[in-house]
User: Which sequence fits this backbone?
């Protein structure tokens, strides 16, 4: 059982990986943060340090506790060093082939009893698990952005996932201060499937030239009482990530028309207009560090 877990491996030092690592070190875990690109690791460590320091400034964390938390973070570039982690969370880009390759490698590295979790937003857990010889120990553990602030975690069992691995994942999520919910291994799980009309209908209205993106956001926040409009939320998530999830859900439902992505998303991704992380998406963010 994962009451024995003291070291968590996190693969991918981007926005999601860094957020998961931050929550874990603050929660008392030692974290092995992996990325093959040293510059990405450096950015991830910087993002984590800034997040922990903000928690101190807001009175959510004592300075001594923050220093101890940062001392529990180890950055690694060799996947082989993940062998000591009893729970490993993959937070790589939303690409099935990439994730299957990573899980095939982990299969030969991780402890036989370790849980291998994927933070995928929409891809099949069964398909990812199929790249290993231990599909019963593979589970979906989908966090939401920004990870330190969002409490929900979707826990998803693949076709051959052992119930014990699901229970361990649920328990770990609670130890991280999150609220886990069980979801079935269906395209988009719960949240991303429900959210597709929120994004895609807004994109269609924009594409028809009926309203500007800021007008649509204003209506959704005003009359709709949403905290963020669909375009603000896409900028926060990353337009590339949102587009990848849209494509994944569309393809998994055999090109169901209501899930069809919009060309505007593709053009923005091709132009590098990815939202907050690049300084410009549907809105501009002049204070966002580049790189």
Assistant:
């Amino acid at each position: 059982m994962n009451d024995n877990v003291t070291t968590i491996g996190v693969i991918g030092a981007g926005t999601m990986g860094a957020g998961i690592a931050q929550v874990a070190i603050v929660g008392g875990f030692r974290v092995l943060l992996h990325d093959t690109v040293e510059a990405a690791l450096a950015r991830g460590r910087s993002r984590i340090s800034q997040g922990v320091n903000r928690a101190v400034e807001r009175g959510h964390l004592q300075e001594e506790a923050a220093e101890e938390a940062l001392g529990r973070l180890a950055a690694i570039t060799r996947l082989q060093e993940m062998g000591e982690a009893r729970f490993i969370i993959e937070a790589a880009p939303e690409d099935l082939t990439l994730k299957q390759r990573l899980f095939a490698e982990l299969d030969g590295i991780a402890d036989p009893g370790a849980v291998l979790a994927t933070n995928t937003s929409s891809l099949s857990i069964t398909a990812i698990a199929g790249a290993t010889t231990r599909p019963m120990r593979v589970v979906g553990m989908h966090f939401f952005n920004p990870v330190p602030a969002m409490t929900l975690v979707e826990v998803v069992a693949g076709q051959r996932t052992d119930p014990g691995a699901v229970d361990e994942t649920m328990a770990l999520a609670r130890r991280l201060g999150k609220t886990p919910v069980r979801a079935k291994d269906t395209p988009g799980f719960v949240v991303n499937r429900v959210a597709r009309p929120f994004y895609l209908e807004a994109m269609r209205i924009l594409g028809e030239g009926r309203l500007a993106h800021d007008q649509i956001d204003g209506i959704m926040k005003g009359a709709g009482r949403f905290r963020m409009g669909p375009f603000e939320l896409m900028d926060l998530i990353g337009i590339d990530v949102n587009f990848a999830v849209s494509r994944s859900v569309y393809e998994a439902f055999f090109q169901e028309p209501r899930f069809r992505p919009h060309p505007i998303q593709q053009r923005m991704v091709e132009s590098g207009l990815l939202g907050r992380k690049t300084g410009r998406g549907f809105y501009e963010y002049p204070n966002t560090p580049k790189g």
